[in-house]
Design brief:
Helices cover 30% and strands 17% of the residues. It contains 1 helix and 3 strands.
Length: 70
Amino acid sequence: MKYLIILEPTETGYSAYSPDLEGCVAAGEDRDETIALMREAIAFHLEGMAAEGYPIPAPQCESAYIEVDA
């Protein structure tokens, strides 16, 4: 499965979250580290959900860029 993650720069690196997986977050010193940590966080999150008997949510979020005149 592919889950959308949102990466945001911070004062100390990057943070990330997945809108499809409430509470699943990660932070790292750079973009690549944060993506790797988020991959691990999602796997851990889904394993925990499965172990507790919760249904695994299907990815639903998507991204799009729009152009506006500013």
